[in-house]
Amino acid sequence: MIVKEIEAKTVLVRSKLPDADYVVNPYTGCEFGCQYCYASFTGRVVNEPAATWGTYVYAKVNAVSLFEVELRRMRRTAGAPSLLLSSVTDPYQGAEKRYRLTRGILEALAREPYPGVVGILTKSPLVMRDVDVLQSLPGAEVGLTVTTTDDRLSRFLEVRAPLASRRLRTLAALHAAGIRTYAFVGPLLPHFRYDRDALDAVFAGLANAGVDSVFVEHINLRPYITQRLREVLDPEPANIQQVYRDASTAAHREALAAAIPELLQKYGLRLRLSKVLYHHERDRGSPLCLLAGRPHAAGDRRHDHRTVNRGLR
Three-class SS of residue 219? Predict the structure, then answer.
């Protein structure tokens, strides 16, 4: 893992996300190296190709002092808009143990304390280190990304991220500490379309951890992500590759999204933004042909969900 230090020109950035007014990314890159991650495009700002995603982290060593300046300026003109740490990195990846940039930013907010929503999105139990600061922020909420309850599958797709079981325990611990929590179920793994028990287990696990609201998002299959998945899935059986090819279609998304309302009702969970999210408004079908390196025929396909789930492990 390559860790480099850089100085940022800005860290408090107006957001294009529907649920946050501003985002703060104390790092560029992410050591977790999740295979499905869309954020690998950010490597271009530090001259890192998409293929090296997960092998580098750039720490913005001036992030805390810069944030303090930008926060004061924002407060004068914009009131107390909602903030998110982070949108294209993990604010609690391993480098945070050394640099403490996320904690420094939270401490700057706590000095007021900041009255607006301060959201955290991470995959790391390291967030528990900062419970003391989070408890002093009236609008603090912490989300953890949970895509599966199967630790073997978690390790396969979320290479160096803390295992899914640890994330569920972290959500429970945060809830016990009085911190408002949520979960990000994204991406919805394609095989869930055929293995509803595995999908059910995710929502059951979140409810058991004290979560009461979730974001749910379909997998993002832009070409650079598809290329990465093609390489990862190349040794897998043909039916596994087929499931991921089918995930690019509107029919797949509709079938998978149709299962969500029942699970929300079953486990008493609220769907944030009131819909299952999707990065593209139109069906992009063709890029996933790359997964097998050849076109695939249209038509109905049947899958043994037990084989699909077992193959991915």
Answer: coil
The model's pTM is 0.88
Gap between the Cα atoms of 273 and 158, Å rounded: 25
- Spatial CB neighbours of 222, under 8 Å, sequence gap ≥ 6: 38, 279, 287
Longest dimension (CA), the chain: 60
> Among candidates 149, 218, 193, 220, which has minimal Cα distance to 302?
193
Say which residues have a Cβ less than 8 Å from residue 189's Cβ, sequence separation at least 6: 147, 148, 153, 157, 219
SS3 212: coil
The pLDDT, as a whole number, for residue 312 is 55
Let me know: does 164 contact 144? Beta carbons within 8 Å: no
Q: Give tens-digit pLDDT for 31-84.
A: 999 999 988 888 888 999 888 899 999 999 999 999 999 999 999 998 999 999
Please spell the DSSP secondary structure of 250-289, one letter per residue.
Answer: HHHHHHHHTTHHHHHHHHT-EEGGGS-B-S-SS---GGGG
Domain ranges, ordered by start, for the chain: 1-134
